Amino acid sequence: MASSDNFLKTPSKTPMNDKVSSSSRKQHHHTTISSSSSSSKSRFEAYNRLQSAAVAFGEKLPIPEIVALGGQSDGKSSLLEALLGFRFNVREVEMGTRRPLILQMVHDPTALDPRCRFQEEDSEEYGSPIVLASAIAETIKSRTEALLKKTQTAVSPKPIVMRAEYAHCPNLTIIDTPGFVLKAKKGEPETTPEEILSMVKTLASPPHRILVFLQQSSVEWCSSLWLDAIRDIDPTFRRTLIVVSKFDNRLKEFTDKWEVDRYLSASGYLGENIHPFFVALPKERTTVSNEEFRRQISQVDADVIRHLQQNVKGGYDEEKYKSQIGFGCLRDYLESELQKRYKEATPATLALLEQRCSEVTAQLTTMDSKIQATSDVAHLRRSSMMFASSICNHVGELIDGAADPDPEQWGRTTEEEKSESGMGNWPGVISEIKPPNATLRLYGGAAFERVMHEFRCAAYSVECPPVSREKVANIILAHAGRGGGKGITEAAAEIARAAARSWLAPLLDTACERLSFVLRNLFDLAMEKNQRRHFDYGKKSGDMEGYVGFHAALRRSYNCFIKELSKQCKQLVRHHLDSVTSPYSQVCYESELLFSGNFTYRNQTTGLDLSDQENIPPENIDRETTPGKIVKAGEASMTVPETPSPDQPRDGNYVVKKENGNFMEGGGRKRHPRIQGNGNGKMLGSLLGQNGGTTYNEICSSAAQHFARIREVLVERSVTSALNSGFLTPCRERLMVALGLELFAVNDEKFMDMFVAPGAIDILENERESLKKRQKILHSCLTEFKAVARSL
């Protein structure tokens, strides 16, 4: 259907308002198609039936149609009643209806009284004829209220279709839209005016629709409230017919011919090529017979012409403007213009119907196959396994890197990922973390790697927190009682281990959740990718469209697989954290192992920033995160310079010297004295502040260095490879096996539960019946249009 709009894009070579110039109007007036013309009537009936089918089945068919637009009090309802030839009090329910009304007027010389029938909701069938005018208005109101209550909305674009057969109405179909309002009525949402305007714009936007815009004569064009809204839809008024309603209210202002001619030309504000119609209708709302109502309409037309001829000095330019004045001229023009559009569009409509009939037949064949397949377990197993395998392959392709489907539509920025995953900011991180490419919409492997890089940035922005003197005293006294000379070093290491367990563990959990969110999103992308591939290559094998139960089970199994991976990865990285923070770990003492070379943290992939935004941290403050390494908070790349060997001269950098077989901390700072004999009392006094708190400060400084070593080892040696192997490798190698075991390694009865769940067969049967009805009515319309085409 994507190309269907092109079928009827056969607009006339001249704009709508050029066609209503004086010469064209004369032609329309003298060549109006007779209501008794068999060819025009058959063409009109064919389009009416096609329109009814389009409404019933939701078909988007570009049928030539007239759409009436206007404000709440601009005379739109009176115009509709005049076209019908009888009153049915539509004005009384105009504020009550919030749905479009499609009026199909059929000229039937045998219908001396109007016969009105409403099309049933969601059906192409019409109900019983309605005779009473009051019943027509009540039906419109009740149907509107019922639908709005069901949809919980203030307005609805779903139209009400009314067919009126009458000897005194033209062959004309017009869509009446809810009137524009400035303020919602009591009891309605405040957004009702905006919703009406939006809905009307949507109805009027299709290029195959003719717009009839009503503006009452008492309003100057320069101060029109709704003219700009029409310009938004049709900027040049090429397909818009402007009707000045309540024209009789303006007549008393004219005294000379030039005043009348200037007003009728409407060239000042609307433009030279815009030629409105000027219409006045009976104001009397008392109950009169239909015949009297039509006589009053004709009388008003005659009174307007007589006033311009007799009460205006010099009259008016009748040759130029007479065809623009009066309801009769407007009615004849609308009927002939619509018939002309119908005739022009018939070949394209015929081609479109042939296409839609073929499409519906193909859909019906597919539905029959699905219903038959519900009893063929082997076929369903084969098709569903092929489908699941295809989804798994697409997931692997997306992880390895892909640009289809469009990342701008399907990708997410860093902020969108954080918001939709519900994780928010990294726990314990105060500064805002903005990794490279944070503003780009990424998915799959690219989004996974961006989260990994963001985790590194977050981890390196976390420092060892301050420790109270009481905590330090409790730790160091316990170590002092054990003897030996490593009390200060052990105390600092213990503080660093506890801080690492407390502050880095939440970061690891958050990283796992964020990564699992990225992988969960791949299911929808894989489904989209699979659907496009089937569409592009016309593949029918493994087509599981419509099997809602199977799709739900497949999605559930995939999400469970990713959830289990996340759980396992959390346990794995927690194990690595427990390992590097264990008292038996040598991470805090083996500084030469980390700093024996020029270790550089620079990821060549994620460090490449392709976004427009600079990777600037919120606070441009340098701080030391590991010995010998100065970084900025949130910085993407960090370098650890080579640590000098013990034989090199001291230059103020932190070094490790080996004395008597033990590693001792040294360098530019004062070395920690060994705790020997009763030096513990002196050390404790220093710790508690008796000698300036030197020992306490040294312990805190050493703990920060140990924390940085633990963080470095955890991030660079353990977590990165663990998360990659824990998430990505299973998705590539074990996904299909996991889905297969859960979905297909079951007996036939349990397997078929995905396809023949309670009510599933009934749903398929109902869809087939709906397709059969659609096929029948479309074939009927096609046959009818072939006959119409032969008569052209």
UniProtKB/TrEMBL annotation:
This is Uncharacterized protein. The lineage of its organism: Eukaryota, Viridiplantae, Streptophyta, Embryophyta, Tracheophyta. It comes from Cichorium intybus (Chicory).
